[in-house]
Amino acid sequence: MLKRVDVVVVGAGFAGMYLLYRLRQLGMKAEVLEMGDNVGGTWYWNRYPGARCDAESLAYSFSFSPELEQSWQWSERYAKQPEILSYAEHVADRFDLKKDIRFGQKVSSAVYDQGNNEWLVLTEQGHEVRGRFCIMATGCLSVPQLPAIDGLSAFEGPIYQASLWPHEGVDFTGKSVGVIGTGSSAIQAIPVIAQQAQRLQVFQRTPNYSVPAENAPLDAAWLAQFKMHYREHRRFHKQGLSSGFGDLEIAPVERVPVAETAEGMSPQEVAAVLEPYWQRGGAFFLSAFADALINPASNHQIAEFVRNKIRSIVQDADTAELLCPKNFPIGSKRICVDTGYYETFNRKNVQLVDVAKDPIKRVTANGLQTDAGSFDFDILVLATGFDAMTGALLNMDIRGKEGMTLAQAWQAGPRSYLGLGVHGFPNFFTVTGPGSPSVLSNMLVSIEQHVDWMAGCLQHMLGSGFRRIEADRVAQQQWTQHVNEVANATLFPQGGSWYLGANVAGKPRVFMPYAAGVGPYREICEDVAKDNYRGFAFT
Ligand code: NAP
């Protein structure tokens, strides 16, 4: 039966949940369509062993409700996946969100009906819903990427993909396990699997830089004091050039780099700056030097500090050298945050296999084969990443004006105005879409900022009697160019990472997130809104 609402929202992760909450406040009727059978998005799917957030729990949480932030108790500096999922469920229950979410609905198409100025959204399960607006809250890392390796179906044992992990968990006891991939997911999973499995072989094509998490339980007395300053912390997360990550100080302090540059410093001087950051743990490590992500010479010094750490942790010199990233600037790919990753390679049951020098040729019935040899294992774990940022959007048949598909509009890479709207697709928004800080930031900070902006925009439309909004073509062109220029002034494009689409064959190489920081981006969005939504056309 066809249903009609004001807004159709796709996805019930943190973005879709907060959107629903805000739309209700505006008095708008919304329906959220969610593929999974519960809320939580990425935290619903990514249940691999060791999965936890790499942003501090106290910052990686909603700020919109002071009562919520005061009542919820995070147990650790970096929460585990089950705890984050419980938090999502708690939020859904507390704000009674589930009654407007339809679970188990995978959206197949969203088509703009120009005559009626509304969107018709269909799911693979046969549900149809019409809405004046369609908002994609589909997440940036929600489409798993299978490796392009022959013979995956030939493997006779179980294959588990990190981002589609079985809900009942996997018992590795007494098993020989192969892991393909050494990105953030694998770096979290490997130390945990190694403790359980009889034998673990890690197939590494590109080593990554990882810093210790220094994760720890949060002390109740400390937490109580921190919470007295929660509002100030939230203001800090939203402003400035930072990416909206958290702080361990009880009262927030202005985060300024210790030094402008590492260029020209001796290794001892660099170590004197970086050692406290390493000891303190977390991705904040990269903010010690102001020019870390723009000056290759400075970046090289920071990278060398990390390589020396790896050499000092890993006992076998050849393994240590293999684990040292050498071909891309530190931070140009998302830096990993680990608990005991490098130490894991000192275990007798763990072997690192270099599949850059000797690539995987095919998966076989019992393991895999390279040019030089074969490797047997009982269980294969794939931690091979995602078709990031555009994957979920382009997997749906999204059609705007004149039947133009989003795939056609984005043939040469994603183009959007502010990462919020796309020319040719009226009444259509993307939460943390390409062209916004999104994956370079604390996602919760960016989700709230986008949803608040959209709510303000919808309120403006309701108040002014506008029924249609569309990103202007020229504004979109200028913004896309600006996003590129900002990226090109940094070392990010040199990472060859999923930020650029480089991990997916045939995907256009476009640096997708906006790299100027959450503070400047927020100011631009607020300025656009104040200026009558400059760059958007209303009807
Ligand atoms: P990823 O960083 O893209 O890593 C994928 C890994 O698979 C890479 O090591 C890649 O090697 C390897 N790979 C892919 N195809 C291969 C092949 N055919 N042969 C050998 N190796 C292959 O994916 P991810 O680890 O899932 O992380 C993605 C993002 O998710 C992260 O950057 C982060 O933003 C997010 N994440 C966050 C957390 C957290 O909050 N703690 C945890 C997990 C993930 P190459 O590099 O050589 O391609």
Keywords:
539 residues, alpha/beta, FAD/NAD(P)-binding domain, 8-stranded mixed sheet, 5-stranded parallel sheet, 16 helices, 20 strands, globular, binds NADP nicotinamide-adenine-dinucleotide phosphate
The CATH class of the largest domain is identified as Alpha Beta
> What is the typical, i.e. mean, pLDDT?
96
Q: What is the radius of gyration?
A: 23 Å
Label the structural class: alpha/beta
Tally of domains: 2
**How many individual β-strands?**
20
CATH topology of the largest domain: FAD/NAD(P)-binding domain
Quote the beta fraction.
15-25%
> Biggest sheet, open or closed, and with what strands and sense?
8 strands, mixed
List all distinct small molecules, including ions and cofactors, that are bound in this structure: NADP nicotinamide-adenine-dinucleotide phosphate
For the termini, the CA-CA separation is 30 Å
Separate helix tally: 16
The CATH homology group name of the largest domain: FAD/NAD(P)-binding domain
Q: What is the overall silhouette?
A: globular
Question: Would you identify the regions where 5 or more consecutive residues have pLDDT less than 50?
Answer: none
